[in-house]
Amino acid sequence: MRNLLKKITHPFLKLGLKLYYSKPRNYCYENVCVKVHPDVFPPHLTLSTKILLDFIKPINLSNKTFLELGCGSGIISLFAAKKGAQVTSIDINIIALDFLKESAIKNQLELTIIESNLFENLTEHSFDYVIINPPYYPKNPKNIKEQAWFCGTNFDYFEALFTQLPNYKIESNSIYIILSEDCELDKIKAIAKKNNLSMKCVSQKSVVKEINYIFIIDKIES
Ligand SMILES: C[S@@+](CC[C@H](N)C(=O)[O-])C[C@H]1O[C@@H](n2cnc3c(N)ncnc32)[C@H](O)[C@@H]1O
């Protein structure tokens, strides 16, 4: 779907979308609602967020610890909290976190919200679930908004992520990442492997002719 957004070339449609997203917009899932600032990843059209929400819906999250790495609007974090999880939400985008604090109050749900570049400011190391919807286009982000989309020309985001992630992988927990056929899957898997991590597809969904995959990340036993 991020691919689809890129493919929209009709000038009126492009202008319409730009105008629509020039002010904060609400997004709701199962009676949980967030307000999304224009500088924050929009879950409305980019269906990866909805695919993850549908994926976690049947999971029993009651009293589980849950980390959303790069939470953006925080809709996934809030939904997990509604399902009874103890949720930590981290992002580098302060606007996203400020809006999420408001959304948490409005939904009467509790989250631990931390501004952090990946795991940098996190003191807790053990989470039952870690959910990641990463930026994956290989370009250098020019501003905070673009950090939601671009992982750096040298896949810097994934290099850093997969270096740090082994510290958060224990035998009993589950780490999920969503990626699209539109991104360089082989390159991303190779960076994981370099850090002794495997990525196994556990779910795939085709939306408007684009396949999205959810991978579970495990340590490669030597
Ligand atoms: C594709 S968006 C996903 C947002 C949200 N999880 C969702 O599914 O709607 C990626 C998010 O990761 C955040 N992000 C990018 N680089 C990051 C980093 N180094 N550390 C923490 N968050 C980061 C972005 O600000 C953005 O909110």
Name its key features.
222 residues, alpha/beta, Rossmann fold, 7-stranded mixed sheet, 7 helices, globular, binds S-adenosylmethionine
Can you walk through the features of this model?
- By secondary structure, the protein is α/β, with parallel strands linked by helices.
- It has one domain: Vaccinia Virus protein VP39 (Rossmann fold, 3-Layer(aba) Sandwich).
- The protein is 29% helix and 26% strand.
- It has seven helices and nine strands.
- The protein has helices at residues 2-7, 11-20, 48-56, 75-82, 94-106, 156-164, 185-194; strands spanning 25-29, 32-36, 65-69, 86-91, 111-115, 129-132, 174-180, 197-207, 210-219.
- Strands 5-4-3-6-7-9-8 form a seven-stranded mixed β-sheet, sandwiched between helices. Strands 1-2 form a two-stranded antiparallel ribbon.
- Helix 3 packs parallel to helix 4.
- The longest helix is centred in the middle third of the chain and has 13 residues, at 94-106.
- The protein is globular, with a radius of gyration of 17 Å.
- It starts with a helix and ends with a strand.
- The model has no long low-confidence stretch (mean pLDDT 92).
- The protein binds S-adenosylmethionine.
- S-adenosylmethionine binds at residues 41, 43, 48-49, 52, 68, 70-73, 76, 90-93, 96, 116-118, 133, 135, 147-148, 157.
